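Listing S7. Sequence submitted for prediction.
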Amino acid sequence: MVRLSKRMADLGLASRREADDWIGRGWVQVDGAVATLGSKVAADLPAARIQVTGAARREQAAQVTILLHKPLGYVSAQAEDGHTPAITLIRAENRWAQCTAPLRFTPAQLRQLAVAGRLDSDSTGLLVFTQDGRIARQLIGEDSTVEKEYLVRVCLAAAPPRQAAAQDVQAALPADRLALLRHGLWLDGQPLKPAQVEWVNPQQLRFVLREGKKRQIRRMCELVGLRVTALKRVRIGQVRLGALPPGTWRYLRDDERF
């Protein structure tokens, strides 16, 4: 037996917090009976035996998910070391002119808007903010397998900064070290999951990861003798950064899925 809210989260009906809120409001029934907060159900209870009210569905449908192109110098979440949180860029005037979602921005959308996956202050690219706990769990939950794709400019760690721009790093890096980036490295006492790593040009690598340890790509590169000089996230799952300009944002469209 498991808590009903956990079973609802496992089925993708709601986040656990959202499910508990619905249950507390009397918006959830199991086999036609109104559920009570903290009630337990079979761990394999099918979704067909759980009913939620129209009010719950409408509230869930009103939740927004925002895609931001984070520029350099901003942190993902709380302010730190003098850097400004990226959420401060989510203002009406920074909405991408080509955003086609039929939504009007209001400050209320910033309430309970949580970042789903971090980017360091010295990294750029796609950053997701969402009010939908289901999406947050999909992207950063312990069992998440959603791919994240990055373009990473590198130089040899031992190279002087003045020479880094002229290096043919692809030719200089031994094949066995590139193989280690793909599989075989450890961080924080744990083996890393296999990654897709390939050269885009002599100074840039493409990484596709299914996990997100702190500063993972930079630390991976350090372990094989590389130094990251620029890092940009260009895709999360099936959603791409595309032509979204730095410092601007747009809504996730109804036809988009991670």
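Caption to Listing S7: primary sequence and predicted structure tokens for the chain studied. Helices lie at 4-10, 16-24, 54-61, 133-140, 161-164, 169-172, 175-182, 216-223. The chain has a mean pLDDT of 92.
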